[in-house]
């Protein structure tokens, strides 16, 4: 069965949006397979975003993701990877449609509250890195 890695970023946790964000995936009908609160170490953040390491915002991105606890989750269901990306909305929250998580809850690309894997292979890989403890 397909699984995706969803991570509520430090701004989502600090702003008290954990319940709201989890609720969107629950209401959609996906299955929560694992969840923990976690302080992401710098090396894991760098590995997670390694495709972006040449971008000018990379140091800011690593500082952001490691700035406080994140919520690590594994979600399961048919088509969950693409569907979760739709529920999350565009990377830039100002371009994200109303009704999406980022469209409703965020304004800055650098503070966009949630991560979702971009392919089933990356979902598997990211769950392996962040959710080894899951059921
Ligand atoms: P994730 O689900 O977090 O992977 O976001 P995404 O797949 O929508 O975007 P992408 O993987 O391209 O970028 C990862 C993260 O880097 C984004 O979610 C942003 O937090 C950050 N990011 C991407 N582009 C920019 C940018 O131009 N400026 C800043 N400050 N941050 C960016
Ligand atoms: Mg991405």
UniProtKB/TrEMBL annotation:
PANTHER family: NUCLEOSIDE DIPHOSPHATE KINASE
Span of the signal peptide: none
GO biological process: CTP biosynthetic process; GTP biosynthetic process; UTP biosynthetic process
Keyword terms of this UniProt record: ATP-binding, Kinase, Nucleotide-binding, Transferase
Lineage: Eukaryota, Viridiplantae, Streptophyta, Embryophyta, Tracheophyta
Protein name: Nucleoside diphosphate kinase
UniProt KW Transit peptide keyword: no
Subunit structure: Homohexamer.
Membership in a protein family: Belongs to the NDK family.
Active-site residues, as the UniProt record annotates them: 115
A Pfam family annotated for this UniProt entry: NDK
Its job: Major role in the synthesis of nucleoside triphosphates other than ATP. The ATP gamma phosphate is transferred to the NDP beta phosphate via a ping-pong mechanism, using a phosphorylated active-site intermediate. This NDK is microtubule-associated.
Residues in Nucleoside diphosphate kinase-like domain copies: 1-132
Residues binding ATP, per UniProt: 9, 57, 85, 91, 102, 112
Organism of provenance: Aegilops tauschii subsp. strangulata (Goatgrass)
Cofactor(s) for this UniProt protein: Mg(2+)
Assigned EC number: 2.7.4.6
Matching InterPro entries: NDK-like_dom (IPR034907), NDK-like_dom_sf (IPR036850), Nucleoside_diP_kinase (IPR001564), Nucleoside_diP_kinase_AS (IPR023005)
The keyword Kinase belongs to this UniProt entry's keyword annotation: yes
Gene Ontology molecular function, alphabetical: ATP binding; nucleoside diphosphate kinase activity
Catalytic activity: a ribonucleoside 5'-diphosphate + ATP = a ribonucleoside 5'-triphosphate + ADP; a 2'-deoxyribonucleoside 5'-diphosphate + ATP = a 2'-deoxyribonucleoside 5'-triphosphate + ADP
């Amino acid at each position: 069965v397909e699984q995706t890695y969803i991570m509520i970023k430090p701004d989502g946790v600090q702003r008290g949006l954990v319940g709201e964000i989890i609720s969107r995936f629950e209401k959609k009908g996906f299955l929560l397979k694992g969840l923990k609160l976690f302080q992401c170490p710098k090396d894991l953040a760098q590995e997670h975003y390694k495709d972006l390491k040449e971008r000018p915002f990379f140091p800011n991105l690593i500082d952001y993701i490691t700035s406080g606890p994140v919520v690590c989750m594994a979600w399961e269901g048919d088509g969950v990877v693409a569907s979760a990306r739709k529920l999350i909305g565009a990377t830039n929250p100002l371009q994200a449609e109303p009704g999406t998580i980022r469209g409703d809850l965020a304004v800055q690309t650098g503070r966009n509250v949630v991560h979702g894997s971009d392919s089933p292979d990356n979902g598997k890989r990211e769950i392996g890195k962040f959710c080894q403890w899951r059921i």
